[in-house]
Design a protein that fits this description.
Helices cover about 70% and strands about 0% of the residues. The chain is mostly helical and about 150 residues long. The chain has two domains: about 30 residues; about 100 residues, no CATH class. α3 packs across α4 and α5 packs across α6. It starts with 14 loop residues before the first helix and ends in a 6-residue tail after the last helix. About 15% of the residues are buried. InterPro entries: DUF1232.
């Protein structure tokens, strides 16, 4: 007796529509997870205002770091992708949403800079910083550098 292949029930009656609905559903779930993650890791109160205050210096820092051939390729790719995201008019969270609308850019910049510091070290970031010492101190607080500065390198 020949076995028939197991067929899943179709939601719409068309394989293509089912596939499209599955992709849209997966993208929606991914977006919701990313929004929840951004809400959890966002800087609180005054730190968010400080992040927005030093944003022009941070953008120059990211551009300088991305152009530095001495940094690992992975780091430069991350920085290039960050610059591309910041240049795009489409945001992860639309700008009309209060607080998080503009904060998503700052949060992503902070996350990428944390990764850059882990892979390239504090010296690379400090040598490319275009702003004031107070601005760098703010950047250190935002990225957790102030906690790392007291720990010896591993």
């Amino acid at each position: 007796m020949a076995r028939r292949p197991l067929l899943l029930n179709s939601v719409t009656g068309s394989t293509w529509w089912d596939l499209l609905l599955g992709i849209i559903g997966a993208l929606l779930v991914t977006w919701i997870v990313l929004v929840v993650a951004l809400v959890i890791v966002r800087p609180q109160g005054a730190l968010l205002r400080e992040a927005l205050r030093i944003l022009p210096d941070v953008l120059r820092l990211v551009r300088r770091l991305a152009a530095d051939k001495a940094l690992p390729r992975k780091v430069r790719i991350q920085l290039g992708m960050l610059l591309a995201y910041l240049a795009l008019p489409i945001d992860l969270i639309p700008d009309f949403i209060p607080v998080l609308g503009y904060a998503d850019d700052a949060i992503l910049v902070i996350a990428v800079l944390r990764s850059v510091i882990r892979h390239s070290g504090l010296g690379a970031v400090r040598s490319h910083w275009p702003g004031t010492d107070d601005g760098f101190a703010t950047l250190a607080r935002l990225t957790g550098l102030s906690r790392r500065a007291n720990k010896p390198d591993q």
